[in-house]
Amino acid sequence: MSTYRTLRREDSHGVAVIHFNNPPINLVDRALLVDLIALTKALEADQDIRVVIFRSDHPDFFLAHYDLAGEVGGKPRPLPEGMASPLSTLLTRISRLPQVTIGELQGRARGAGSEFLLALDMRFASRERGLLGQPEAAVGLLPGAGGTVRLAQLLGRARALEVCLGCHDFDAELAERYGWINRALPDAELPAFVDALARRIAGFPASSITHVKAVVNKVTEPDPQALIEESQRFVGNMYSDETLKRVAWMVEQTNKSGSTMEMNMGPLLDRYPAEI
């Protein structure tokens, strides 16, 4: 029996497929983080798995975003000086896994959901349903778990600023043009493409994966100090009056209007303080 509460793992021929399932919308919450920590620890010690695919059982959400609702009315919890946030640290561990990691995006990945995908080795998205966004600036924050840093590396300065400050939703075709994902593929073809790529890579010598990832990581790994500064700025501003007001508004709109805010967050973020 699986010990995971929010995900399911299936292994076959050197490939592990991880299915996210954290109702109602796959929030990045405490339960999911506990499972991801356990999964990461298991994969770090696994010598049989060469490729890991991450996909979602939810048709509309890969990973929605970090669960900010618990921060409203909460007690400030500053980070120790010189340390990144626990989420940022976890995503760095995932980025360094010995396996090749592939994200399959069918649905929405915003905030921490997008940052999770950015920590993976490759990202492929459904042309019809894939949607990415970094909405943090709309509530007075910044992507705090590697998003600002990794987007700047992948997209370049100007496009990273557009993504992080504009807070729009990006469809898969535009994300592909910007370099946010590897490819946008027809929805019906995406799982088969990802499965075939994973099996192909898993069939090659393990030493190939080890050496290629080691050199590519050496060239492209984010500056640890930049990740620490990003986390420190995020947590330092999390409990400002303006941020708490905007987060409370966003949570209220989500609760009041069902899935409207979650489904259409990009277009609706600039409506504050109106009711939606």
UniProtKB/TrEMBL annotation:
Q: Provide the GO MF annotations for this entry.
A: catalytic activity
Where are the membrane-spanning stretches? Answer: none
User: InterPro entries, alphabetically?
Assistant: ClpP/crotonase-like_dom_sf, Enoyl-CoA_hydra/iso
A Pfam family found in this protein is ECH_1
Q: Name one GO biological process term.
A: fatty acid beta-oxidation
Q: What's the superkingdom here? A: Bacteria
SUPFAM superfamilies, sorted: ClpP/crotonase (SSF52096)
Check the record and name the PANTHER family matching this protein: ENOYL-COA HYDRATASE, MITOCHONDRIAL, ENOYL-COA HYDRATASE-RELATED
The protein in question is named Enoyl-CoA hydratase
* Classification lineage: Bacteria, Pseudomonadati, Pseudomonadota, Betaproteobacteria, Burkholderiales
